[in-house]
């Protein structure tokens, strides 16, 4: 599949990038996308929620009243869950929410997500670029040239570029990642994907394994 390569000003360079049909033009598997996104979101949960139960409450274990003759229910401890300040019954405990997913399914999910974006014409290829210094203004001008200033965008670089990354860090709707950090969730969550020429080789080599 051939796609026109744009420059930093959004104009065609006259060159075309050859995108692999095995990565960018497969029949999307929506269930694989669902499983991978579900796993990604589950891994974001810390699972550190915790409520103190009866045995963990600070307080005396003295029997607060005699067993019989009071006319009320028996009570053995002030830490009982039925009293104010007592332990919580069946409260939340720390839990590991991570889920296991076969790496072949994850690979299929990423290819499916990229193929969906390709079908939706939401995939743009630009030549490699850099900024002289970290400036949000320069990055905003780059997004405006592609018509993405008001859209969620994901820019994929071929390698670490601090100037580009720092220029985008203040923008809520835009994210910059390198090809090895590309995930199904980030692809699906963005309205448009911007791929640099140098990122294509890494993406295709990672997903063709």
Automatic annotation (TrEMBL):
InterPro entries: Ribosomal_uL4, Ribosomal_uL4-like, Ribosomal_uL4_dom_sf. Keywords: Ribonucleoprotein, Ribosomal protein, RNA-binding, rRNA-binding. One of its GO terms (cellular component) is ribosome. The keyword Aminoacyl-tRNA synthetase does not apply. One of its GO terms (biological process) is translation. Residues 51-77 are annotated as: Disordered. The keyword Metal-binding does not apply. One of its GO terms (molecular function) is structural constituent of ribosome. Part of the 50S ribosomal subunit. One of the primary rRNA binding proteins, this protein initially binds near the 5'-end of the 23S rRNA. It is important during the early stages of 50S assembly. It makes multiple contacts with different domains of the 23S rRNA in the assembled 50S subunit and ribosome. Forms part of the polypeptide exit tunnel. Belongs to the universal ribosomal protein uL4 family. This is Large ribosomal subunit protein uL4. It comes from Flagellimonas ochracea.
């Amino acid at each position: 599949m051939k796609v026109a390569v744009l420059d930093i000003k959004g104009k065609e360079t006259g060159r075309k990038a050859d995108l692999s049909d095995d990565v960018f033009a497969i029949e999307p598997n929506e269930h694989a996308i669902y499983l991978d996104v579900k796993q990604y979101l589950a891994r974001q949960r810390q699972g550190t929620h915790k409520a103190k139960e009866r045995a963990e409450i600070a307080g005396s274990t003295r029997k607060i009243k005699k067993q019989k003759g009071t006319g009320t229910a028996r009570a053995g401890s002030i830490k009982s869950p039925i009293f104010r300040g007592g332990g919580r019954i069946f409260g939340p405990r720390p839990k590991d929410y991570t889920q296991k997913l076969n790496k072949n399914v994850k690979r299929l999910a990423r290819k499916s997500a990229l193929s969906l974006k390709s079908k939706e014409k939401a995939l743009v290829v630009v030549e490699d670029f850099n900024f002289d210094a970290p400036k949000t203004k320069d990055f905003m001008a780059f997004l405006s040239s592609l018509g993405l200033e008001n859209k969620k965008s994901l820019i994929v670089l071929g390698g670490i570029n601090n100037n580009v990354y720092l220029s985008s860090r203040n923008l809520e709707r835009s994210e910059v990642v390198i090809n090895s950090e590309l995930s199904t969730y980030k692809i699906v969550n963005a309205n448009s994907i911007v791929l640099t020429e140098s990122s294509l080789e890494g993406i295709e080599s990672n997903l063709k394994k």
